[in-house]
Amino acid sequence: xxxxxxxxxxxxxxxxxxxxxxxxxxxxxxxxxxxxxxxxxxxxxxxxxxxxxxxxxxxxxxxxxxxxxxxxxxxxxxxxxxxxxxxxxxxxxxxxxxxxxxxxxxxxxxxxxxxxxxxxxxxxxxxxxxxxxxxxxxxxxxxxxxxxxxxxxxxxxxxxxxxxxxxxxxxxxxxxxxxxxxxxxxxxxxxxxxxxxxxxxxxxxxxxxxxxxxxxxxxxxxxxxxxxxxxxxxxxxxxxxxxxxxxxxxxxxxxxxxxxxxxxxxxxxxxxxxxxxxxxxxxxxxxxxxxxxxxxxxxxxxxxx
Length: 305
Hints:
By secondary structure, the protein is mainly alpha-helical. Helix content is about 70%, strand content about 5%.
């Protein structure tokens, strides 16, 4: 059964969209990420215009994020003080990102920019995660049982405006999480990502947060940043396809619930290795699509005002 998407101006199988929403929601619950970095490329693959995919995906990220965050809140695995800091930084970043999105769209380069950005971002993050997961696996096999420091102290830990985060057992500069979440907010506004696939490893390896509180804390940030980006996109550019977002939302809620349960049963380096492989495959597919000769050399696009 197909459904017509008014903003995307195309018909798509409703079961395909629900399946995409559930699959990405499941991955979001497992890895503690929003899933927008996968949903947007998948929508582009099935023919949804990149600008509409970015704006509509942010709404789907909210649904999966709320479900996953609630599950972590019930297990008391959220650092609410840290969550407040990263939400503030992410909101400001999302405003800047949406303004940048509008500028690129005005110059007619938004579709190319989105595709290239995903190739670079997914390829880089996927490669780094694959290297880290491999090293962790090898260390586990050759471990001598000694204790290893969670993170190294470097110049950033000497920055001013230090704040205590009792739940994470940290005393660090508030500038670090603010700057990190600001950058994530920009990505959310321009690319429709929740940013969890960057925020989660950054919280662990840069901020030094305990692994058990990272996914839940990241999900809180993802929900609020994605919500602000969606609202701004709808007001400024009218690129949010409400029907598409609603269908993805239904699948995302169901998938993220099962994903949050599954995350408690799997080993960390195995999950990171699988996610890295998935990122590299998606980046490769986008790169191939960019280099292939299109079927139609010229296309006509109507600009909404």
